[in-house]
Amino acid sequence: MTRRSKLAKVAGLGLLGALTLSGCEVQGSWLSWGWPEGITDEAARMHSLWIGSTIAALVVGIAVWALIAYAAIRYRKRGDEVPRQTAYNLPLEIIYTIVPFIIIAVLFFFTVSTQNRVMQRSADPDVTIAVNAFKWNWQFVYPDTTDANGGEPVSTVGSSTEIPILVVPTDQTIRFELASADVIHSFWVPEFLFKLDVIPGNENGRDNVFEVTVREEGAFVGRCAELCGTYHAYMNFEVRSVDQADYEAYLAAREDGLSTYDALESIGQPGNSTSTRPLDLEREQSSAAASND
């Protein structure tokens, strides 16, 4: 077998490994390299994209390192004689030009496919929740409900002393319609592996829309991921995912006039946030005043 054939086979094997592994779904935590798995179907797809891309990069990197090591050992200096020089190698040049383009095309395909799936909107979601961001807190509105105090939809709003809790059902398609009352905010739940900037004036509640299907029950911190002003760091919220029966019982309790705290307690959930807590504004303001004196 000629040297040219050997190089072509090595490149071909590297390409085959990269293309094959880039489509794999690897869920083992030891292969995540710090990337969380997430709690939604969409997060699982992004996790697979990350793992596949990383493995493909490692395969290409190992192939390159192997070729460098081979060249360094095979063609190391053995004396004063100058080795035979090769000015052009057309087959090899074609291989190392075409192979990277193929790898990039495959990674681009998987990236676009994942993005389209993550941003896909269903015609009839199971649950719709309106999210209103403002300086510096959140309001969560359940449009398909009616509270006991005037016929408005049930809503939860945070304050400087209360973390707003967004209650969602598991195993349901949830549509979030985001709107901002002032500046650009960003809705971010780390366990979703997703964030969406909330741009005011950009067809609030229509263009700022995404959907998820949550698969795990629990309490998960949410944050604003866009620097939006003085108290941006205080703009936290909590996502509380519960089963469908508890979710319906929670909304029924809210429609009967119970507060968020009491409605959560009625379904056996903690009434206060457990994943994050309000920061002490008075202490911060006192520290700022003291530093200015």
Automatic annotation (TrEMBL):
Molecular function terms from GO: copper ion binding; cytochrome-c oxidase activity; oxidoreductase activity
InterPro entries, alphabetized: CcO_II, CcO_II-like_C, Copper_CuA, Cupredoxin, Cyt_c_oxidase_su2, Cyt_c_oxidase_su2_TM_dom, Cyt_c_oxidase_su2_TM_sf
Its membrane topology: Multi-pass membrane protein
Record carries keyword Chaperone: no
Principal location listed in the UniProt entry: membrane
Cellular component terms (Gene Ontology): plasma membrane
Transmembrane intervals: 50-73, 94-112
Pfam family, one: COX2
Record key words, sorted: Copper, Electron transport, Membrane, Metal-binding, Oxidoreductase, Respiratory chain, Translocase, Transmembrane, Transmembrane helix, Transport
Localization (cell): Cell membrane; Membrane
Enzyme Commission number(s): 7.1.1.9
Reactions mediated catalytically: 4 Fe(II)-[cytochrome c] + O2 + 8 H(+)(in) = 4 Fe(III)-[cytochrome c] + 2 H2O + 4 H(+)(out)
Keyword Iron-sulfur set for record: no
CC cofactor: Cu cation
Domain Cytochrome oxidase subunit II copper A binding: 124-253
Region (Disordered): 263-293
Note accompanying the cofactor annotation: Binds a copper A center.
GO biological process: ATP synthesis coupled electron transport
Functional note: Subunits I and II form the functional core of the enzyme complex. Electrons originating in cytochrome c are transferred via heme a and Cu(A) to the binuclear center formed by heme a3 and Cu(B).
Family: Belongs to the cytochrome c oxidase subunit 2 family.
Protein name: Cytochrome c oxidase subunit 2
Gene: coxB
